[in-house]
Amino acid sequence: MLPSVCRRAALFLCTLSMIAASAIILSADQAAAAGFEVGENTPRALARGGTGVVNTGDSSALYFNPALLSRVDGAQVLLSSNILNLDVEFQRDDFYVEPGGEPDRVFERATNQTGLFPAPFLTASFNITDDFTVGAGLFGPPAYGNPCYGPIEDGECQLDPTGATRGMVIEADMIVAYGSLGAGYGITLGDDRRLDVGLTAALAYQQTQFAVVADAQYPIQSPWEEDPHHEAYFRGEDLSGMAPTGIVGLAYQDGPLRLALSYRPPIRWRTTGEANVEFSQFLQDMNSELTDDTMYLETWQAGSLRFGWGLQWGEHPADSQRPRWDLEINTIWENWSVVDNFQLEFDGDIYVDNINTELPLHPVYQRKGYQDTISIRTGLSYGVNSRLTAHGGAFFETAAQPVAYTSADFVSWERYSASLGTSIYLPANITLDLGYAFIYSPDRTVRNGQVYNPIPMSNCRGPDYNDSSCTQPGQPPGNPQNEGTWRANFQIFSAGLSWNY
After folding, report:
1. Where are the domains of the chain?
2. What is the third-level CATH fold of 2-500?
3. Distance between CA 355 and CA 38 in Å, rounded?
4. Binning pLDDT at 50, 70 and 90, where does residue 27 land?
5. Smaller CB count within 10 Å for the chain: N or C?
6. Euclidean distance between the first and the last CA atom of the chain, given in angstroms as a whole number
7. Close Cβ partners of 314 (under 8 Å, ≥ 6 residues apart)
8. pTM of the complete model
């Protein structure tokens, strides 16, 4: 027995080295998921409607519910990746400085040009005793991380001078990764009754870049005409930071019945990077420059509470220890209401050499107005034969973005999903998992938009907008940017390999 345990321990330590090496690779690539969570990690969970808190039987329990780690036998390594495609379209309404007559600005329809986005997932677990298992992993939340709403040239997203999203976001490139360690412990309560508890501790890393057009008209006054000659092309670059987080979990088994829950608290982000500004032609002619390019981005990422129940019955043709039928239903609550705004702060101001004057850059509060979400998810698996298990599922999720706050940076309104997949059992204890999900969001028409273009030189500042310079108290300066028609859907392909020893 001891040599076998030692071999499994060596495998686990080797996998830890793989995870550390992967962290270096991920930090240099657009690989980890970020932004709003969509779909679910791992092909099996994706195919089963995004479920996983109750019946996960592999090392991905580190992410879904660490209490379930104690039910994973031996040593296991799981490597998978989602491939996401975001199809989003926005046609902004024509803009009139004064109502009536011909429109002052007509915008080109904006669509995401980036294409497929990979989001890998790596976990490993090691069963120290029959009741105690430890795990390690590197993964991010399932999401789409780098939309681009302008033409792509030489691999770079370009500004479209008449693009519909230019006052919200032109491009974003976000990485979020959780370096995680966890453990699960099981307590036998009687015949076929068991209680499991678990904890995952993680250090979350975020790196962000984005581009947007800001109003740089000088002197600063309404009406805000959105004249391209008085606008600046603003980029936030290499905004990075770390934050601690974790997941706690419980699981209960009584014969075929399973109950479970897990919770991850919200994460407060403060990232630091650089501001890169291409000034308006007027400010360029006045020989303007930033006195300090250091900038900060502050916001929250929602916490999540997963609760579910499941049933397992029958004997799988591949393994008498597995069920033939596996049903799971989850309810997931996420407190996105913590995201009231994205806050941008600057260390520097704008120095105008020709008049020897500094123009202040005030903090920018991009209003988000997000609300909490609830999703209902259901998944079912059936052991077809000794080499194949079939999966299917569906879910519904409420909107994080109210209609008035619909925005292009993250597409997060009502979602309906159908999914399917399979697990194929290969020689040498290797399992190939495949999953596919289509996620549909109903079309939206925004008439009273609350997403305004940034005007960082205005004294009408958030979060209250009550300065005497505010045209309307309580309202940001600028014009609503999101009024028009919206359409969006996601497709997610997922594939993974797991190896048990």
Report:
1. 2-500
2. Porin (2.40.160)
3. 50
4. very low
5. N
6. 14
7. 323, 324, 325, 383
8. 0.89
